[in-house]
Specification:
alpha/beta, Rossmann fold, 7-stranded mixed beta sheet, binds S-adenosylmethionine
């Protein structure tokens, strides 16, 4: 890690790895390491299928190879054909455009589905959205999709700009609404969005957005647990025109 910068919660693996890098340069912001440590811990030392968009000088290949178990499927893509030379044993580099559906389809066909996808490619919002939309179905249940350098959503040159609807950041914010659309009480303006059946978390970090998949066909279940018994119900869903259950107790008026 950068001398003097040792944030809590960084897996020692990354700290040690950075002391032992070879000639292939790695390019990451320091504050991504706590994110990797949190988000990827459950995949560490396990055989996973992993896809990273963006190879550049090849430094992330050995890092991920050492982080995941032997036997993992480790796939890296880049638009620059020169990146192919960074392929190392146990990894696969494919050359193509992250926004090209035919190329992405060929990756899914050859290597998918994936436990983890990490987009560290062009950082252009349009590309980030295109890759996510195409690759999300190829994420396994309980897998994660990470998009890095999302600060570019605030840069007009990358298709962003503050509150630019076309930016990846605004797209990700809309996914928060989609995820909660089970609970809609305003069908006209906020209809149910089928993406709620797959998306269980949208986590915003400084410059990284993490999307987690959990397949859930029917509406979320609420439980009441008492006397060692657990009773499940989905009745909350049938209540329309909801109002606070605390009405009258928390200062909210009891009005019909
Ligand atoms: C930030 S670098 C990747 C750094 C690398 N992941 C690392 O950790 O060291 C971004 C890479 O994305 C590639 N790239 C840019 N546009 C792309 C696109 N449309 N499709 C695929 N790769 C792209 C660039 O050629 C560059 O090598």
């Amino acid at each position: 890690m950068v001398p003097g910068y040792t944030p809590a919660g960084v897996d020692k693996y990354f700290v040690e790895h950075l002391k032992q890098t070879g000639e292939k340069a790695l390019n990451k912001w320091t504050h991504y390491f706590p994110v990797y440590s949190r988000e990827l811990a459950r995949f560490k030392n396990r055989p996973v299928s992993f896809l990273e968009i963006g190879v550049f000088r090849g430094g992330s290949l050995p890092m991920w190879k050492g982080y995941f178990a032997e036997g993992s499927t480790l796939v890296f893509i880049d638009i620059d054909p020169a990146c192919k030379e960074h392929e190392i044993d146990g990894t696969h580099i494919r050359i193509g455009n992250q926004a090209d559906p035919a190329f992405l389809a060929s990756l899914i066909e050859e290597f998918g589905p994936f436990d983890v996808i990490l987009d560290d490619g062009s950082h252009i919002s349009e590309h980030q959205i295109a890759s996510y939309e195409y690759l999300w179905p190829a994420i396994k249940n309980e897998g994660v999709y990470l998009v890095e350098d999302t600060h570019t959503s605030y840069w007009p040159g990358f298709g962003g700009g503050y509150r630019n609807e076309a930016s990846f950041m605004e797209y990700a914010k809309r996914l928060v609404d989609a995820m909660h659309s089970w609970y809609t009480d305003e069908d006209e303006t906020f209809p149910f969005d089928g993406r709620a059946k797959e998306l269980c978390a949208v986590r915003f970090y400084d410059s990284v957005v993490v999307l987690e998949k959990f397949l859930q066909e029917s509406i979320p279940v609420c439980i009441t647990a008492s006397d060692g018994k657990v009773i499940a119900n989905q009745n909350w869903h049938k209540v329309r025109g909801r109002r606070s259950v605390f009405a009258g107790k928390d200062g909210t008026p009891i009005e019909d």
